[in-house]
Design goal:
The chain has 576 residues and is α+β, with helices and mostly antiparallel strands. The chain has 22 helices and 17 strands. Helix 9 packs parallel to helix 17.
Length: 576
């Protein structure tokens, strides 16, 4: 992946170099710019495919110039189509395929793409800006349009070179209270907006706006939860289809001219990826984050089961949790946004370690949202399916009572959310006095229909935030992250898969578990506890002299660190 930037002004060399400095970590291998009297485009490159100078950006063909962040995983297949139509190439890069595909097909090229991307193509003659972002929003793209100034960039930090940061109080407060801040075009900063995923758009200079159009969506079944009864024959068909999709997705994401590493947590998602990677005979390193001092979040035993079964060597990182205040400050500066808590610190540490050996990572991000892996997915299902409830009670005993309680609470709506959050709102108002919670967001986030909830979690409320975390953590250490489960074909398959093949016999993500069992690792496939990337939040808070804290306290501390960082940015800018 890379860093991209553009502005509808001519910039001098000093400012261009400042922009490059902000984006350097996203692309330390090469950099460049295009500039005329109407525009300046800047690119920093992390070289993954075609490492030669032929793939340098900004790339120009005729009167079109592109700055592009991402990978088009099926670029070889698209290149062949274009070659058959008589289009020639001077490089082996996916960038040239993308640009010439756009010249040939216009916005219709987006229908061909299987990849993670954000890009801008500028027409030198017409002064036309065309922007687009991938279907799931794997790659970031922010923009600012005010008083005749148009800016876009891969990261929000860059905007501080041109404007003063001002908080959007509503968005900021909701991010701290609800842990929701990637669900719309708004960011926590006024006038800095998210370019929407699965959209393309252009700058309308006459009306001072960005005109966008959606090019992809998934039409889900909004019917009853029991829309289909379990069928062994149909399940085997679905299992075969899913197996073929995930294998092909992984194959595409192993297209690289640099070394690749695989993240292995010991959970269902990363275990399945590790099994397939081994089955495909790829020679890669595996990486795990472990917490041996905190047994409740440590997954050493499952990592060892997978590594022993596959006969693979795993790089085991013991995540530090004492005297990490400098790390945490850098983590917040890296994200330049509100983060849920310090759980992503473990991921940050893994990417720091992984970057010493490889430049591309593969992870299991996206599976929980697509296949119903979270406790609140169970809570929705358990109160409407008696058979599932009985079998889950056998597996978890009285532990299901909390899931039932949560499921029933979701039916209460606004009154429940208001009462539950009052003590947290009071904490936030001590820092952000004008804040008024937007409970309408929660009404949608806790949509009771599970099919719709999975769609919202995938496209609005959970996965976009997790993809942002993974992008910032990986790119902080100049690593490109790839997530096979977010292949749009798997997303379409999963969101249309009847619930009974996701929730079965008391288990979540049933179809994934059965595929792992098919490969011979049943005890990991049907493990009962779910951990994921976690961190000892209490111990980390003690580094900041805080003894007791809930998630809102943690997010308020994160906001304080972020606010201090922003003030230092402003001071430095004023001093120049």
């Amino acid at each position: 992946m890379c860093g991209i930037f553009g502005i509808n002004y001519f910039l001098d060399d000093r400012i261009i170099n400042e922009v490059k400095r902000f984006l350097y970590h996203r692309g330390p291998d090469d950099n460049g710019f295009y500039r005329d009297e109407y525009v300046t485009l800047v690119h920093t490159r992390l070289s993954i495919i075609d490492l030669s100078v032929s793939a340098h950006q900004p790339m120009r063909v005729g009167d079109k110039v592109i700055v592009y962040n991402g990978e088009i995983y099926n670029y070889i297949e698209i290149r062949k189509i274009l070659l058959d139509e008589g289009i020639s190439f001077t490089s082996n890069s996916d960038t040239e395929v993308l640009l010439k595909g756009y010249i040939r097909y216009g916005e219709k090229i987006l229908d061909y793409l299987n990849g993670d991307f954000a890009f801008c193509i500028y027409d030198i003659k017409s002064k036309f800006f065309f922007l687009a972002r991938d279907r799931l929003g794997n790659k970031p793209l922010y923009y600012y349009l005010k008083n005749g100034t148009f800016i876009f960039a891969s990261e929000i930090k860059v905007f501080g070179e041109f404007i003063d940061f001002e908080y959007d109080i509503q968005a900021l407060g909701d991010a701290i209270l609800f842990n929701i801040n990637d669900y719309s075009s708004k960011t926590i900063f006024k006038d800095i907006l998210n370019f929407p995923q699965a959209h393309y758009g252009f700058l309308d200079t006459n009306n001072q706006r960005i005109v966008t159009k959606r090019y992809w969506n998934v039409n889900i079944d909004n019917g009853a939860v029991h829309s289909e009864k379990f069928s062994e024959r149909k399940f085997n068909d679905y299992l075969e289809e899913f197996e073929n999709l995930i294998i092909n997705s992984i194959k595409l994401r192993f297209r690289s001219e640099v070394p690749i590493g695989v993240l292995l947590s010991g959970g269902i998602d990363s275990t399945l990826i590790a099994i397939i990677v081994k089955k495909l005979c790829y020679n890669v390193d595996f990486y795990s984050a472990l917490f041996p001092d905190f047994k409740e979040i440590d997954e050493t035993c499952y990592v060892e089961k997978v590594s022993d079964f596959l006969n693979i060597l795993v790089n085991k990182l013991i995540v530090p949790y004492e005297d990490v205040d400098d790390d945490i400050k850098d983590l917040v500066k890296t994200h330049f946004d509100i983060i849920r808590n310090f759980s992503i610190y473990a991921q940050y540490c893994v990417f720091r370690e992984l970057s010493k050996k490889v430049k591309v990572s593969i992870s299991g991000q996206g599976s929980d949202e697509l296949f119903g892996g979270y406790y609140h997915h169970v809570a929705r299902y358990i109160v409407v399916d008696d058979e599932f409830l009985l079998k889950r009670r056998i597996l978890y005993g009285d532990g299901v009572l909390k899931e039932i309680e949560l499921g029933m609470s979701m039916l209460k709506g606004r009154e429940f959310f208001f009462e539950y959050n009052q003590k947290f709102v009071a904490k936030i108002r001590k820092v952000i006095k004008e804040y008024e919670p937007n409970y309408d967001i929660l009404l949608e986030k806790f949509e009771f229909n599970l099919e719709r909830a999975l769609y919202f979690d995938t496209t609005k409320f959970i996965l976009p935030t997790l993809l942002r975390y993974e992008d910032r953590n990986s790119m902080r250490f100049s690593v490109e992250s790839r997530t096979p489960f977010t292949d749009y074909r798997i997303v379409e398959f999963a969101l249309k898969l009847p619930l009974v093949y996701k929730m079965k016999d008391g288990y979540t993500k049933f179809i994934l578990r059965k595929l792992i069992e098919k490969y011979g690792l049943k005890d990991v496939a049907f493990r009962l506890n779910k951990i994921g990337f976690e961190a000892p939040n209490k111990k980390i808070m003690e580094c900041f002299n805080v003894q007791e804290a809930d998630d809102v306290d943690i997010r308020l501390l994160i906001f304080k660190i972020l606010d201090d960082t922003i003030k230092k940015f402003a001071q430095k800018r004023r001093s120049r």
